[in-house]
UniProtKB/TrEMBL annotation:
The keyword DNA-binding applies. Transmembrane segments: none annotated. Pfam families: HTH_3. SMART domains: HTH_XRE. Residues 9-64 form the HTH cro/C1-type domain. PANTHER family: HTH-TYPE TRANSCRIPTIONAL REGULATOR XRE (PTHR46558:SF11), TRACRIPTIONAL REGULATORY PROTEIN-RELATED-RELATED (PTHR46558). This is Helix-turn-helix transcriptional regulator. It comes from Priestia aryabhattai (Bacillus aryabhattai). The lineage of its organism: Bacteria, Bacillati, Bacillota, Bacilli, Bacillales. InterPro entries: Cro/C1-type_HTH, Lambda_DNA-bd_dom_sf. It comes from the Bacteria. One of its GO terms (molecular function) is DNA binding. Keywords: DNA-binding.
Length: 119
């Protein structure tokens, strides 16, 4: 069986330039071998630890488990929408909302043109 979780953990750690020892320390794990065993696929982190790992690397648990292909999925993009919106006037909010909608439509049209699909 393929070790998707372990490969993802290794990828995320190396992308940060961190050692296994540093990650273990950041996660509050007493022995480095515990974390190393997760990367090697010998053991799996429990659900609570998966959440801690996801938060550490700023990815979803689904990404770590291999359910999503990209570390930065829709959740991250959708979360950007709520970034500091409290201080906006209603007019500013509506203008930004329209700009985002237009840009999303532009990107979708661009993608459709690249793929040669008309529908």
């Amino acid at each position: 069986m393929e070790n998707i979780t372990g490969k993802r953990l290794e990828f995320l750690r190396e992308r940060k330039g961190w050692t296994k020892s540093l990650v273990a320390k950041k996660l509050g794990i007493k022995t480095v071998s515990t974390y190393a065993n997760w990367e090697y696929g010998l053991r799996q982190p429990d659900s609570e630890m998966l959440v801690k790992i996801a938060n550490l690397y700023d990815v979803s648990v689904d990404y770590i488990l291999g359910r999503h292909e990209h570390a930065e999925g829709k959740e991250k993009v959708q979360g950007m929408w709520f970034y500091d919106m409290d201080n906006l006037s209603e007019k500013d909010f509506e203008e930004i909302e329209e700009e985002v909608r237009e840009y999303a439509e532009f990107l979708l049209a661009k993608k459709k043109k690249r793929s040669g699909k008309d529908s």
